[in-house]
Amino acid sequence: MNIGLIFAGGTGSRMNSKDKPKQFLEVHGKPIIVHTIDLFEKTKEIDAIVVVILSDYLDYMTELVKNFNLKKVKAIVPGGETGQLSIFNGLEAAEKISHHKDDVVLIHDGVRPLINSKVIQDNIECVKENGSAITTAPAKETIVLVNGSQEVSEVVDRTRSFTAKAPQSFQLADILKVERDAISKGITNAIDSSTLMGMYNKTLHIVEGPYENIKITTPDDFYMFKALCDAREIGQIYGV
């Protein structure tokens, strides 16, 4: 069984949106999170979807799932105090749906709608073969490391540099075991799932995804997503 875990428990303070959290901002008549979920919904390898959302928006999310006919969504649960705890809530919900210890969970940001079915499929295959899959994109520019004085301490070889994105995918039983142990030790604010698994010396394998697989965090990100949607719609209309 392959389960998509879509989490969007943040308020999006950098978006300057006073009316609603960023995941509910609409583009072409659909909230961003619905664009994201719909990609998993339409990927045949995905069997079920768990959505983690702000507790105040549980009813609204339930309404969106119904209105947009997202039939693979099997659970909608509230987020936690941190991103890690929000993901943990989703993992526990996924465990209740899971049928087998080797089931795969794909952890994905609700505000990262510019992936495609191939990325999802590649994640699933990589987890089945290697136990993990971290979606990445090759670095386009040179990355440097700096010291406390803001001086360059190292120039990283660009041919070996990638930016970590999402989905980040694992065997459900494996990441749940790590999450539970980490939380029992007071570790509750890992920056992402790959970082947490790395802290436990888990081998992490990568799959390459598209450069445009951005996380919509700022107004610039939002307008970039809107522009890409506009371009795709024009292409469909005019066949370009």
From TrEMBL:
InterPro entries per record: IspD/TarI (IPR034683), ISPD_synthase_CS (IPR018294), Nucleotide-diphossugar_trans (IPR029044), TarI (IPR034709)
E.C. no: 2.7.7.40
Catalytic reactions of this protein: D-ribitol 5-phosphate + CTP + H(+) = CDP-L-ribitol + diphosphate
One of the protein's GO biological processes: poly(ribitol phosphate) teichoic acid biosynthetic process
UniProt site positions, description: Positions ribitol 5-phosphate for the nucleophilic attack: R158, K215
Coiled coil: none
MF annotations from Gene Ontology: 2-C-methyl-D-erythritol 4-phosphate cytidylyltransferase activity; D-ribitol-5-phosphate cytidylyltransferase activity
Pfam families associated with the record: IspD
Residues binding CTP: F7, A8, G9, G10, G80, E81, T82, G83, Q84, L85, S86
Keywords, sorted A to Z: Cell wall biogenesis/degradation, Nucleotidyltransferase, Teichoic acid biosynthesis, Transferase
PROSITE patterns per record: ISPD
Pathway annotation from the record: Cell wall biogenesis; poly(ribitol phosphate) teichoic acid biosynthesis
Site feature: Transition state stabilizer: R14, K22
Single GO cellular component term: cytosol
Described function: Catalyzes the transfer of the cytidylyl group of CTP to D-ribitol 5-phosphate.
Family per record: Belongs to the IspD/TarI cytidylyltransferase family. TarI subfamily.
HAMAP family the record matches: TarI
Name of this chain's protein: Ribitol-5-phosphate cytidylyltransferase
Organism: Lactococcus hircilactis
Designated gene of the protein: tarI
